[in-house]
Amino acid sequence: MHRAFALSIVTAFLLFACSSFSPKETPPSETMTAPATQPPTSAPVTQPSTAQSDLQTEWLAQLETISPQNWTRLQLLQTIPAEIPLAHSVVVIEPDGKTLVLGNSNKAHLFFFDLESETISSKSMYITNVENVDVPFTAIKCLSDGSIIASSYGPYMIYHIDSAGNILSAWNGIEFAVSSDEKYLAFDVAEGTSVINIENNEPIALLENSNGLGYSFSPDNSKIAIDAVTVDYANVDIWDIKSQTILKTLQNMYMASYSPNGKFLVMIDTVDNTLKIFSPDGAVLITTILDAHSNYLISPDGSIVAYQTAEGSSVARDTTNWTSHETALRGRLDSFSPDGRFLITRTDDGGILIWGVLKANG
Description:
single chain; 362 residues; mainly beta; five-stranded antiparallel sheet
């Protein structure tokens, strides 16, 4: 997540990704409560969902898969207010789509929040063997086998952590990506970008001189798009992994992501901040989205590219014809659940809002 042509923009990202907080730690056995006073926030104040009281147990089963056709029917289902130590923490969704993994905002500590019971799981854990236990994880990826890949700073490190909190492997670095089949990990090293086999920690490829600060594997693992960022430029390099050669360099671009269905590649133009949609090899510009004002999301089935406009609308672009569907969601778009049945937005004070579409008979 970096912009070109301005050192201040790249620096701002790094400060955001690596910032630390100093509220008092809450032990995992204690109930977390909000502080007596909350700091001011420019986002709307987190309020309880009007639909929340009507939801019964197993409410996740009542949700439709989010699509361009039902985007305007999204409603607020759950609100998790900003609380210490969760405020400003990393939030990801486990592959089962029922659990949130929340990174502590000031420690190497992970909370597991069950969405339906609205409780913190007893498997929440401190990761004790990291290089610095007093800094938070800046990025987290949950794998289907129950393990987690997470990065932190002080020093910059990436860890593969099993479900019991044991560190299986560790690498120097902070930005990383995991392939869709969870076989491969890409991260920055001094020589370029290293691609390794996660299971046996064996190197697959070394893509030299990429200056990588962001990565996205194609679904078939044949290619990887790398945000090649320096203080002077931001480009996207598309590499063929097997031959370890650059297929295409797209200048003045960053934050590239392949669609999960492999049909297109999305990135942000650093000159005009528009979204550009390319063919998977980067050779053909499919469309340009002019009204995008923020980060974007791609739905798990690739049917939606979602973003927010300067006016605050939340837009879903139907990727079959690139028509737009608008609604209003509070908070910043954060992530889709792995099954595409709900999405998360975050308020500026760290609150978590969960949105979905209830079935007609739900």
